[in-house]
Amino acid sequence: MEEEIPVVICAAAGRMGAAMAAINSIYSNTDANVMFYVVGLRSTLPRIRKWIEHSKLREINFRIVEFNPVVLRGKIRPDSSRPELLQPLNFVRFYLPLLIQHHEKVIYLDDDVIVQGDIQELYDTGLALGHAAAFSDDCDLPSAQDTSRLVGLQNTYMGYLDYRKKAIKDLGISPSTCSFNPGVIVANMTEWKHQRITKQLEKWMQKNMEENLYSSSLGGGVATSPMLIVFHGKYSTINPLWHIRHLGWNPDARYSEHFLQEAKLLHWNGRHKPWDFPSVHNDLWESWFVPDPAGIFKLNRNS
Prior knowledge:
The protein has helices spanning 16-28, 45-53, 96-99, 119-123, 144-149, 166-169, 189-194, 197-211, 224-230, 257-262, 282-286, and strands at 4-10, 33-40, 61-66, 105-109, 113-115, 133-137, 180-188, 236-237, 265-267. It is an alpha/beta fold. The strands form 2 sheets. The protein has a 7-stranded mixed beta sheet, with helices on both faces. This is Glycosyltransferase 8 domain-containing protein 2 isoform X2.
């Protein structure tokens, strides 16, 4: 029996088409035995099932998992600057062992990604002894000229945490420490449980409620900051080609076509999503789009 590769991906009501395109790209580019764990809130589960079963995705192996936002009660500070970052599903990655049993190693992906490589390769990422997860370092971005054009890019802890607060200062983490992006995670469930990672993340969410230690007006919102704290100095790294990101950062900044062809995974993090207008490199995303059998999710091309 070949090893089953569990891939966790969230399907949020307003952007379900994103999850389906990501799943389609993964399934189409591998011969590995992938099990998709598609996570949603209770009200959307029937729609997720319908989309998969009434489209070309009907051949995939999948389980639909309900995420109950009650676990977040009293842990999220309302934030008016980017309310979309407070969606309950943004915090699914904190609770992986509760949602996925019977797997030692799990891949978690944000919904706004496309996989162009063989997911087996990402799954084979080595995790050092004692590490519960692997991420992409934000200092590993491609050529400097690409990066400098992507103005206002946060790639240090300073961009995510409020260093005026005592609790943050007391961590002793230099503000210039390179951050990482938790939109692509390879996680070891045994270590995760052993180190009680979920509990640690919840502790920092709670602290943020009381002391406002980070806010979405700073970095990538409220789900990244607790992870930066809990995993500081204790994570392995993913091959940079397996997480080419910031495609959604600035609709005027483009990567070279050759570079994007080499990339194994593309991530449209930022406000400019490839199913919306304006956005860049959306042709690469659209080639994996699976039309919504319910006709609800539509591409906004503004043409």
